[in-house]
């Protein structure tokens, strides 16, 4: 089919110039407010290439995300500094051996990096200490603002920059991380454009997969179609995350597709597919899930679960606007799903009582969604002072924040039949009374449904950046070959004369 999006858009480094400006003004404001001097340097160390285990096989490098945010540098081994006093930015490139030119290509001069990455100056990484000393015009040791802080999704800490001669500097390890992370939470127009493109090409790839899905194929063939489309027509060499191509009972395995479960099941007639796949374009990602019947026609049970999830997805998007709390959106999604399950006789009793018993988490154990940007799970979900909830389901939320204009957050309700959760729930006196055992038995092996869109919070509401068919009729039509987006039906049905 090719692609309506070819060729991919030009990337401008202006996005990173703006990101640096934003950090500089936030940091300066913070320093002024705490009566601290406006000098010193922000210093970040970019990512390093890694080899596979003990071999010389070099894994394809992808830049560390904070470094990518500020400098947009695709090459490994760089450092970057921002002079807090002057606002000047300095990139430090690794000094490459002459042999590099034999095996890896032309060695670019420093001027190339200065021009390409739109920084004030470029030097070599073995000059960091001397260059920063030269740029410092105040008394005492120059102060370095280094990146050190917790990633609340992984529980890992970012690694502060290290270099020869760092002992000649004072170090501040606490100021930078929360300020830089907060900058990343609210997206600029240029960042939004990149996320939109990642969404456009990924949405198109999902539709291509939907159209080519046939009984008897393997899950990895769906993955392959997606990867091909986003790379071939979008130049997306990286995905935001490993593709989850789950069918049948695998779709209840939330993070299916990993090395031990490598998308290798045969697609069976009557099964659902749950495909969670998103491409990355110039560091900025997308995170999209489509669920559909492999044979192209929803059964009544599939419609029941799918509609429950779609209603939750749509209810959340209708309610989203600045000031709305994300925990409330999660609870709204749970409630809509539980009401649908009750109408389908899967659950019994009063929905509010089910909510109190946290029954929603039996069917949707994960959080409703997460911030999205350079990382799939973009940082900043838990501002200082915000506590993770303890209750099932809510404790999985990657943020509990109020929505703000400029956030991009995924809306990804799901409903799954997971034995590891259903069996204990059926055996617990608090939850078993809500569960219709016979009907639930019918859903054994069903797997699950998830619908995931990437949503931008606007001044007055929100905007869904993901453009996939979502309604049951739309999915069935697209799978049967109908165009997407649907062709506009002409309102001009007069006498055939062109108006
Ligand atoms: Mn997601």
TrEMBL record:
<dbReference type="InterPro" id="IPR036005">
    <property type="entry name" value="Creatinase/aminopeptidase-like"/>
</dbReference>
<keyword id="KW-0378">Hydrolase</keyword>
<comment type="subunit">
    <text>Homodimer.</text>
</comment>
<comment type="similarity">
    <text>Belongs to the peptidase M24B family. Eukaryotic-type prolidase subfamily.</text>
</comment>
<dbReference type="InterPro" id="IPR052433">
    <property type="entry name" value="X-Pro_dipept-like"/>
</dbReference>
<dbReference type="Pfam" id="PF05195">
    <property type="entry name" value="AMP_N"/>
</dbReference>
<keyword id="KW-0224">Dipeptidase</keyword>
<keyword id="KW-0645">Protease</keyword>
<dbReference type="InterPro" id="IPR029149">
    <property type="entry name" value="Creatin/AminoP/Spt16_N"/>
</dbReference>
<dbReference type="InterPro" id="IPR000994">
    <property type="entry name" value="Pept_M24"/>
</dbReference>
<keyword id="KW-0464">Manganese</keyword>
<dbReference type="GO" id="GO:0006508">
    <property type="term" value="P:proteolysis"/>
</dbReference>
<dbReference type="GO" id="GO:0070006">
    <property type="term" value="F:metalloaminopeptidase activity"/>
</dbReference>
<dbReference type="GO" id="GO:0030145">
    <property type="term" value="F:manganese ion binding"/>
</dbReference>
<dbReference type="InterPro" id="IPR007865">
    <property type="entry name" value="Aminopep_P_N"/>
</dbReference>
<feature type="domain" description="Aminopeptidase P N-terminal">
    <location>
        <begin position="11"/>
        <end position="155"/>
    </location>
</feature>
<protein>
    <recommendedName>
        <fullName>Xaa-Pro dipeptidase</fullName>
        <ecNumber>3.4.13.9</ecNumber>
    </recommendedName>
</protein>
<keyword id="KW-0479">Metal-binding</keyword>
<dbReference type="Pfam" id="PF00557">
    <property type="entry name" value="Peptidase_M24"/>
</dbReference>
<dbReference type="GO" id="GO:0102009">
    <property type="term" value="F:proline dipeptidase activity"/>
</dbReference>
<keyword id="KW-0482">Metalloprotease</keyword>
């Amino acid at each position: 089919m090719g692609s309506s999006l070819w060729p991919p858009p030009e990337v401008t480094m202006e996005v990173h110039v703006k990101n640096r400006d934003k950090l500089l003004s936030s940091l300066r404001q913070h320093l002024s407010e705490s009566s601290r001097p406006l000098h010193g340097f922000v210093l970040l160390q970019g990512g390093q290439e890694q080899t596979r285990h003990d071999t010389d096989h070099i894994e394809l490098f992808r830049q560390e995300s904070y470094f990518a945010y500020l400098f947009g540098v695709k090459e490994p081994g760089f450092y970057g500094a921002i002079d807090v006093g002057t606002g000047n930015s300095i990139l430090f490139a690794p000094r490459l051996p002459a042999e590099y030119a034999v095996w890896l290509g032309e060695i670019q001069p420093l001027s190339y990096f200065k021009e390409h990455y739109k920084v004030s100056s470029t030097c070599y990484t073995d000059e960091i200490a001397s260059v920063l000393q030269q740029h410092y015009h105040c008394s005492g040791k120059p102060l370095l603002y280094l990146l050190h802080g917790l990633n609340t999704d992984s529980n890992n800490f970012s690694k502060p920059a290290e270099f020869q001669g760092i002992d000649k500097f004072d170090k501040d390890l606490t100021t930078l991380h929360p300020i830089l992370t907060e900058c990343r939470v609210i997206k600029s127009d240029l960042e939004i454009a990149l996320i939109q493109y990642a969404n456009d090409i990924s949405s198109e790839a999902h539709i291509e997969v939907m159209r080519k899905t046939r009984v008897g194929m393997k899950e990895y063939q769906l993955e392959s179609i997606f990867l091909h489309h986003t790379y071939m027509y979008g130049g997306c060499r990286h995905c935001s995350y490993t593709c989850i191509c789950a069918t049948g009972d695998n779709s209840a395995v939330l993070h299916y597709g990993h090395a031990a479960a490598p998308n290798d099941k045969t697609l069976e007639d009557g099964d659902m597919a749950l495909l969670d796949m998103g491409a990355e374009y110039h560091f900025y990602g997308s995170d999209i899930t489509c669920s559909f019947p492999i044979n192209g026609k929803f059964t009544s049970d599939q419609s029941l679960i799918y509609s429950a999830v779609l209603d939750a997805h749509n209810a959340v998007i209708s309610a989203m606007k600045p000031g709305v709390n994300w925990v409330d959106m999660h609870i709204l999604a749970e409630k809509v799903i539980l009401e649908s399950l009750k109408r389908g006789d899967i659950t019994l009793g009063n929905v509010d009582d089910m909510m109190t018993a946290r029954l929603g988490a039996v069917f949707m154990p994960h959080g409703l969604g997460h911030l999205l940007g350079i990382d799939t799970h973009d940082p900043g979900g838990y501002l200082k002072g915000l506590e993770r909830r303890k209750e099932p389901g809510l404790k999985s939320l990657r943020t509990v924040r109020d929505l703000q204009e400029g956030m991009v957050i995924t809306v990804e309700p799901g409903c799954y039949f997971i034995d590891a959760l259903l069996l204990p729930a059926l055996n617990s006196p608090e939850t078993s009374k809500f569960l219709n055992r016979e009907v639930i038995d019918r859903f054994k092996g069903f797997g699950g449904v998830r619908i995931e869109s990437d949503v931008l919070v606007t001044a007055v509401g929100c905007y869904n950046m993901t453009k996939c068919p979502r309604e049951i009729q739309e999915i069935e039509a697209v799978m049967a070959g109908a165009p997407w987006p649907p062709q506009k039906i002409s309102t001009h049905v007069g006498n055939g004369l062109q108006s």
